[in-house]
Description:
Layout: H1 3-10, E1 28-31, E2 34-37, H2 60-82, E3 88-99, H3 107-122, E4 129-135, E5 144-152
Parallel strand pairs: 3-4
Antiparallel strand pairs: 1-2, 2-5, 3-5
Amino acid sequence: MSAVEDKIAALGLKLPEVVPPLATYQPAVRSGSYVFTSGQLPMVDGALPATGKVGAEVSPEQAKELAATCALNALAAVKSVIGDLDKIQRVVKVVGFVASAPDFTGQPGVVNGASELLGEILGVKGVHARSAVGVAVLPIDAPVEVEIQVEVAE
């Protein structure tokens, strides 16, 4: 197991299997020294633990936890391309989408779930640029979706 996976285990987490695509795309692709993930839903064992809009059916606190699950799924997608998460040089960018009730404006706090987990796992290599976007609906009524871009060693 890699040092990154040891850190994941030390946090009481397990790197999941790559979430199978819901349509025609790859979970992650490499271009040069970068790996780009597709949007990752908070799937756990093939199912969404919650559905609906944040600020209505899903609390901001629960959505923050789901965003962390998305980040863990994104790391699994990265591993599927590079084989060893220790090759990550840094997380460059995180984009989080939050299916939001009309009056919900706490998208940055929700996406902090992904950012904070990446920081806990990768330390300074997990510091990144980020966008947190509120949207009307996400695939299969997921409350959150996260994609990441990482720079990796050649």
